[in-house]
Write the structure tokens for this entry.
Amino acid sequence: MHASFEEKIKSPRGISPEIWFTECYQRHRGHPLLILASLYKGYYHKFLLAVFFFFIKHSPVWILPIVTASIINDVVSGDENLVRHLMVSGCLMVALLLLNIPTNYAYTAFKSQATRYAETGLRKALIRKLQELSISYHIDTQSGRLQSKIMRDVEAVETLSTQMFLSILNIALNIGVALVVTVQKSMVVFFFFLVTTPIAAGTMWFFRNVMKKRNSEFRKEMEETSARVMEMVEMIPVTRAHALEDEEVEKMSGQLFAVAEKGYKLDLVQTLFGSVGWVIFQIFQVLCLCFTGYLAYRKYIAAGDITLYQSYFATIVNQVSAIISLVPTIAKGVESVHSIGEVLLSDDVERNEGKLQVEDVRGGFSFDCVHFRYHDAEQDVLNGLDLEVRPGETIALVGESGAGKSTILNLVVGFYRATAGKVLLDGQDMNDLDLRSYRRFLAVVPQTSILFSGSIRDNIIYGQEHVSDEKLWQVIDAANLRELIESMPQGLDTQVGEHGGKLSGGQRQRVSIARALIRDPRVIVLDEATSALDSVSEKLIQEAIENLCRGRTTFIVAHRLSTIRNADRIAVISEGALEEIGTYKELMEMKGAFYHLKMLQS
Ligand code: ADP
């Protein structure tokens, strides 16, 4: 089903929609309507077909008044062919009405193919862009805002296109047909329409608008109430513990009555404005009736045409006021086009094109007088860091919080680039490398293990396609997970729950280590979790870490004594520079910064 629908909604020139959509944004930067039009390129014919079917589906609305008028006229004039006429008209109308079902279906199918294509394409373009944007962009941007762009803004753009194209088309067709028929039949009535329509539509819009405003005020009050209810429910344990039940009920009751009063007032206002609007509309109808009745009396028009003009007048007035009420939807949609553009046009991306492909990594790093400053910060976080790491070496980074250890890890991953100085990988400046090709040789174990909802197996083999069972179990053994997995009834297929919520902290860390191991990386970046663990978990994790690091260049931000002891060398980082480096034994004997740090902790 997915595949066949994907086949159906292809973008022009055969390129994938996400690339095409980003191009549309770039080409028409700052012109939302042009952007919107270009999104549908290659799909205009679907819209035309939709229009065609719309025209047929909708035709009874225009034809019915003509047929009614002509029947009345025949009745009035005592036409002898009346019965035949009635039968032909009746059959024609029934046929036309029945045609509504398939044509309505076809109209929706074509329209929906175009709009769903644009919707999916935009979402895909946004998702690809999010994967390309730099990590600093993601740190600076709230994920909720990005999510709302992908879901809400795209939906608003879809609504905008549907409205822009189809509602306006619908309105234009309705008004157009009614006016054309009127002009042909009677210029006097046409001028009557021309004068009265704006007044009638304007007043109706005015009253509708007032009601809408009141509605939104009431909605806000309701939202406030539901927020209060939520808060009350969350507070229940505290309320009960303090025996404040009655006070809470009183407080809520006050809010509920306040809403009820607002609702009552709203009902009254609504009914008042509703009936005023309705009465005005009907008065104009009566006006039209009297006017056309008079014209018929004076024989300017046929008697039956009174009903025709009556229904056309109603159509025109309703459609014009519909146009006015479209304005907010259009404004919202245009705003959403801009909002999506903020992401699609951002150039805060990692540029890898044309850079050196990394075919093999030995794992030697050298930091050569590296400075680094976060883009909105006033001071450097790294201040001339010099550090040589040999291939296969495990280096523990220690130092006070805020010293710059995580920043060093981010430079190793390539999320950030040195502001000054160089980071060399096997003698090559990392600025010259295609970082994606380098990262095939890298594994990261973050401080808080990030698992996704799925099975343990899915979480371990994340991103690796062909993993033999033999290799999988080797990794599981190395990560000390066998016992855990075998104790679970569904074994490897056990679901870990959202964010791995069904596993303990220590278990999540080991799954995270297994995920790193299965990549068989050359370089490992490990930010040790600070959370205290019981001694059994501690031991299991320590063994897993040792298995992970063996023979691979490893950077660890270390908190555990066992990790620090086992590291080949320890680098003490202070204020963004290297203060001391050496083995555990050497540093302890030196009685320098590391020794003092240790003394403080023990
Ligand atoms: P450590 O890992 O040693 O605790 P970090 O490398 O995380 O230290 O941080 C070093 C300094 O950089 C801290 O003062 C921190 O506030 C600052 N910092 C970290 N991340 C950012 C960021 N994204 N933007 C601005 N400043 C940051």
